[in-house]
Amino acid sequence: MTTTSERISAPVTRKASRRVSQSVFDGSRLRVVLLVDVYDGAQQQFLEAYEHLCSQVASVPGHVSDQLCQSIENPSQWLITSEWESAPPFLDWVNSEGHVQMVRPLHSCVRDTRSLRFHIVRETSAAVAADSGPRQLQLAPRIGDGKIRHAITFTVKRGSEETVARILADYAPPEAQVDENTRLCRTTLFMHGNRVVRAIEVEGDLLAALRHVARQPQVRAVEEAINPYLEEERDLTDAEAARVFFARAAVPAVHHVTADEECPEAVRYALYYPARPGRGMELARLLAEQDEASANDPNCPVCRSTVFQRDEIVVRLVDVRGDLDGDPVHSLGRGDSTRAAELLSLLDGEAVGANGSALKSGDVARFLELARMQLVTDRRSDQA
């Protein structure tokens, strides 16, 4: 008889940093679970769309396998699971325009979907194929603070920045309590030139929170008010158009690190790092590594940092004790001169402009000024 200790993967001896509550960069395998509710009578259409999608996904770098399951209790409920070598290749794919177009055929036969992503921490030996090679597992469970962090971004027409900032700053906040399990904790909105970034923190169900916010009359009025100024036109009255817009706008959090103690006096800032084409994930990883190293420095003024990344868009949200300019090296996530050079090599030359000269000359304060985003609004719930 096989004992539990023989079946479960070997214990982990190396400890992950307890200050990192979220990261996609530990190299472990990823399990993606997609819960799907199919319209009545559309099961065959859904199956055909899945088969087409499956043949395309099989060639995506980092994809290992997938399964399609149908509920034995309700034929309209389906489950798609896939395994990936690690999180970065999955995120590169799922955040790409190719993915947006690839999943379009599913939308006409699907009532609702819910996507969940998990690092594999332990597994039984029977689940590992003999020829699958070594499998990297997450080192240890992450100890988080119960909050989900997410951001969306979009651009507005040049010359409309001040008007858009006034609209986005001047509306009543939505009701914080979504349901008995979900609550909006904090919403912070920044701009960098004509780029808008809205970061939110949620306790509970992120999807429920996003839907809750979208239904609020004051939020709908603001969205309508900024529509004429958007570079990418959208029609939020069309469910499919709204789905595609927000799929393209989503910027997931890829790393979150915090210091040991709470720092209620900290001030929130955001920094924008435009990456070279195809180098966004690499740039996000560099910033994540630097933030993790800095968290061990008792003199570091950054008490929390979240890195968001999608394609070439990399945004770093930092909570800093005192002013951002007090310690520009730590605030920027630059590290030593070697890391500074590496950071520079990953930044888009055209977008960086004077930033590159600032880094080369060692003018960290100037680079920090150029990367800093303008705060539009920062709202917390009463309990946050």
Write structural notes for this entry.
The protein is of the alpha+beta class and 384 residues long. 33% of the residues lie in helices and 28% in strands. The longest helix has 15 residues.
Notable traits:
384 residues, alpha+beta, 13 strands
What is the gist of this entry?
The protein has about 375 residues and is of the alpha+beta class.
Number of strands: 13
Can you tell me the overall shape? globular
Mean pLDDT: 84
Helical percent range?
25-40%
Distance between the termini: 51 Å
- The helix/strand order is HEEHEEHHHEEHEEHHHEEHEEHHHHHE
Structural class by sheet pairing and helices: alpha+beta
Low-confidence stretches: 1-14
Largest sheet: 9 strands, antiparallel
Give the strand content. 25-35%
Query: Number of DSSP helices?
Result: 15
The rounded Rg comes to: 22 Å
Structural topology:
Elements (H helix, E strand, L loop, with lengths): L3 H4 L12 E4 L6 E9 L4 H15 L5 E8 L6 E8 L2 H8 L2 H6 L1 H4 L2 E10 L27 E9 L5 H9 L13 E10 L2 E9 L2 H10 L1 H10 L12 H11 E9 L8 E8 L5 H15 L7 E9 L2 E8 L7 H5 L4 H10 L2 H4 L1 H7 L3 H8 L2 E7 L4
Antiparallel strand pairs: 1-9, 2-4, 2-5, 3-4, 6-8, 6-9, 7-8, 7-13, 9-11, 10-12, 11-12
